[in-house]
Structure formats: C-alpha cells, structure tokens
C-alpha cells in the first residue's frame, strides 16, 4: 500500500518539475517593470517585479529591447523570450513565424506588451479593472503589430470593455 503512494508522489514531483514557465507579458511604469509568468497556460503569476518568485522561479533581470527575461530556477539561470501567443494561431504562425505582441499604452507613462495567451488575460483584466476605477480614466492606446489578426485585437478590446474602460483608441504607430 505504501509503494503505490510513494510511486504517485514521485510521478507528481517529476511532472511538476518538468512544467515550463512561460513569459506571458510585461508592463513598464515610471516605477519599473512588472512581469506575468505562467505554467502550462493555466496558472498565472499575476504582476511580479524583479526579485519576486513564481512556482520556484525567481525573476533576475529584464532586457526590454530584446524582450528577454532572465530567471533562475534550482540555481540555474536562463533567458526566456516573451511568449509568441499560440491561442489563436494563424497559418503563418503555425508555419513557424512568431506572433508579435500587442502594445498597450496607458496615459503617457505606462505600457504593457502582451501576446494573446490565456494565462496573461487574467492579469490584464485585473489591471484594466484598476484603471477603470481611476478618476479620470487614463486614455488607453492599443498598438497592434501590422500582421495582428482581428481576433487578437478583439480579445484585448473585449477585456477593456468588460472592465469598464471607456477611453481607448487603436494606433498603427
């Protein structure tokens, strides 16, 4: 009876150790950058700063130009790129092209860069709800990449509307 329990514990440990942490998005404010990580596209970290941890992974550094996050897990460092968003993959994306993030500009001082992964949506929704409660609401500008699909853009617009954001626009640059 103890053997099956020990075996099940080992299987669970191996499965959780192999779960890959994904860099879903980031937000830049005047105070610094915040990041969202996820595991298996279902568990999201919420907004984290450098030095904070999620699921045994510590955020060490961030290169905004390359959108490269350095993390440490079990004493080993690795760099991970912003997720390419595979929730609504187009034919070109399935062929190997990377989906570029949608940039969300908030007022004059903040920006959020996101793919369209489901794990990022919860953190984005919470941020939008906080902004909707502000008086006055900041103007939000969506800057999708030139090859963004309508579905990706609609996903963000729907989140804005659901949160109660009334002032937003879309810009090509």
Overview of the molecule:
This protein has 173 residues and is of the alpha+beta class. The protein has 2 domains: 20-81, SH3 type barrels; 91-170, no CATH class. The chain is 29% helix and 33% strand. It has 4 helices and 11 strands. A 7-stranded mixed β-sheet has the order 3-2-1-9-8-10-11. The longest helix has 17 residues, at 2-18. It is globular, with a radius of gyration of 18 Å. Mean pLDDT is 77; it is low at 5-18 and 85-98.
What structural keywords apply?
single chain, 173 residues, alpha+beta, SH3 type barrels, 11 strands
Distance between the termini: 64 Å
Unreliable stretches covering 5 or more consecutive residues: 5-18, 85-98
Please tally the helical runs, counting DSSP H or I stretches of 4 or more residues: 4
Major beta sheet summary: 7 strands, mixed
Give a summary of the structure in a few sentences.
This protein has helices spanning 2-18, 91-94, 118-132, 150-163; strands at 21-29, 32-39, 43-44, 53-54, 57-63, 68-73, 76-81, 102-106, 110-114, 140-143, 168-170.
List the helices and strands and how they pair.
Elements: H1 2-18, E1 21-29, E2 32-39, E3 43-44, E4 53-54, E5 57-63, E6 68-73, E7 76-81, H2 91-94, E8 102-106, E9 110-114, H3 118-132, E10 140-143, H4 150-163, E11 168-170
Parallel strand pairs: 10-11
Antiparallel strand pairs: 1-2, 1-9, 2-3, 4-5, 5-6, 6-7, 8-9, 8-10
Helix pairs in contact: 3-4
């Amino acid at each position: 009876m103890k053997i099956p329990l020990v075996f099940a514990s080992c299987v669970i440990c191996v499965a959780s150790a192999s779960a890959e942490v994904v860099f879903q998005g980031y937000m830049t404010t005047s105070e610094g950058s915040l990041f969202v990580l996820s595991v298996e596209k279902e568990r999201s970290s919420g907004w984290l700063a450098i030095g904070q941890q999620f699921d045994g992974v510590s955020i060490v550094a961030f290169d905004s130009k390359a959108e490269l996050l350095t993390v440490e897990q079990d004493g080993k460092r690795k760099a991970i790129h912003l997720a390419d968003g595979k929730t609504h993959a187009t034919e070109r994306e399935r062929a190997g092209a990377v989906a570029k993030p949608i940039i969300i500009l908030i007022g004059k001082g903040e920006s959020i860069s996101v793919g369209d992964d489901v794990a990022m949506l919860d953190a984005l929704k919470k941020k939008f709800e906080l902004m909707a409660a502000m008086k006055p609401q900041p103007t939000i500008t969506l800057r999708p990449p030139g090859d963004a699909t309508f579905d990706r853009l609609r996903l963000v617009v729907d989140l804005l509307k659901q949160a109660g954001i009334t002032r937003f626009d879309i810009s090509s640059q």
